[in-house]
Design a protein that fits this description.
The protein is α/β, with parallel strands linked by helices and 392 residues long. The chain has 3 domains: 119 residues, Udp-n-acetylmuramoylalanyl-d-glutamate--2,6- Diaminopimelate Ligase, Chain: A, domain 1, CATH 3.40.1390.20; 150 residues, Alpha-Beta Plaits (2-Layer Sandwich), CATH 3.30.70.270; 96 residues, Arc Repressor Mutant, subunit A. The strands form 2 sheets. Strands 6, 7, 8, 9, 10 and 11 form a 6-stranded mixed beta sheet that branches. Strands 1-5-4-3-2 form a 5-stranded mixed beta sheet, sandwiched between helices. The chain is built from 16 helices and 11 strands. The chain is globular, with a radius of gyration of 23 Å.
Length: 392
């Protein structure tokens, strides 16, 4: 039986949520959920999926002049769920009118809802209602359920044994993003039939998950990186002119832990895409502070910190045609050297000192204070991580 927006709204996690607009579209089919965490719609696949975002990003769209409801509708999304801030007072009239006209549901969540619970509830319910996908192999169904559902360890061990996985099997997740999402199935076939490594594959929304089987002797990050880079070269040679990016999670000893590796690979791939990294292969352990920035549990606090630091400075710079944020960014990159900052910005030494004093008086930020510098660093990295610099 089809899972629709109307049925989704009956889930416990949507208690006290409300349909702000587009109520006539609640019979749209829902097959999954996607996170809107960038103003670049070209990186999003939304067909038959619920779009999950926060009012923080929606305010960025307002500044850019993009009608995100129209963009989501054009990509055949099922609806949009918005997590508001407690202080939010409403939504722009043109957005609400567009949703009504297009019969595109806007669902406003409660401010204290956990976004990860929303994602898990929708994903689990689509699997539960549809049962196993008859078009997928037993192995693919096993890994799909392993990623999104909360099965007990004994059940996972028993079912894993049916596809040849030991209870202490060492697994690592690779997530492959081809430049042409239409070749995802071909990538799966290549990994299974033309690659010398033992693995399992699963494809969804144009991405390919590879569950890589490792021996104890291969339990090494550098070894896995080399495997991924070799696979990348083979894929690009076999499927030219397509290009690929690969995100890698950590190795985990037993199938029950594989979902951790998968979500780490997702984070590694997302950071690589948003930062437009020159290296197409990214490992989760190399993300540094981005490992924290991409944790859903931290996002609201991160956005609040961004608003209190970098966001405030950006607004001032835009209104007054100043360059305080660029000065701060350069100052931090130059290890807090006034002399080097002045050289980089082609201004006088005293100009930088003047700006540093103005930053303190205008924003209450003391660049001599380690904690203030740390807050600014995190705020700037949040802007970089979530592609907010387009609007700066």
């Amino acid at each position: 039986m089809a899972f629709t927006v109307a049925k989704m709204l009956k889930l416990a996690v949507f208690c006290n949520s409300k349909v702000l607009a587009g109520n006539k579209g609640v019979n749209r089919i829902v097959t999954g959920v996607t996170i809107l965490e960038s103003t670049d719609f070209n990186t999003c696949r939304m067909k038959n999926e619920i779009v999950l975002t926060s009012t923080f990003f929606l305010r960025l769209f307002e500044k850019s002049g993009v009608n995100y409801i129209v963009e989501c509708q054009q990509r055949m999304a099922s609806g949009i769920c918005i997590k508001p801030n407690i202080a939010d007072t409403g939504f722009p009239e043109d957005i609400v009118n567009a949703a009504e006209r297009l019969r595109f549901p806007i669902i406003v969540l409660t401010p204290n809802v956990d976004l990860q619970q929303v994602i898990s509830a929708i994903t689990y319910e689509t699997l539960r209602r549809d049962g196993y996908d008859i078009h997928l192999s037993f192995e693919e169904n096993f890994f799909q359920e392993l990623i999104v559902s909360d099965k007990d360890r004994d059940s996972i061990i028993k079912r894993g044994a049916m596809i040849g996985l030991g209870k202490d099997e060492l697994l690592c997740a690779l997530l492959i993003q081809p430049s042409d999402v239409g070749i995802a199935k071909d990538v799966c076939d290549f990994c299974l039939c033309k690659w010398e490594r033992k693995c399992y594959t699963l494809t969804k929304n144009g991405r390919v998950m590879v569950a890589l089987r490792l021996t104890i002797a291969e339990d090494n990050k550098d070894f896995v990186l080399e495997i991924a880079k070799t696979l990348l070269k083979k894929l690009e040679a076999a499927m030219a002119p397509n290009k690929f990016r690969i995100g890698i999670g950590r190795n985990y000893k037993e199938p029950a832990q594989f979902n951790k590796s998968f979500f780490e690979a997702c984070n590694a791939l997302s950071v690589s895409q948003l930062n437009r990294s020159r290296d197409p292969v990214s490992h989760f352990t190399d993300l540094g502070i981005f490992r924290i920035l991409f944790d859903y549990k931290n996002r609201e606090e991160l956005f609040q910190l961004y608003r209190e630091t970098v966001g405030t400075i950006i607004e001032y710079d835009q209104k007054n045609e100043t360059e305080y944020l660029n000065t701060i960014r350069t100052y931090l990159n130059q290890k807090c050297s006034v002399n080097n900052t002045a050289k980089k910005l082609f201004v006088h030494y005293n100009t930088i000192n003047y700006r540093i004093n103005k930053i303190k008086s205008l924003f209450g930020i003391d660049l001599d204070n380690e904690e203030d510098r740390m807050n600014l660093y995190v705020g700037i990295k949040t802007a970089d991580c979530y592609d907010l610099n387009k609007l700066i």
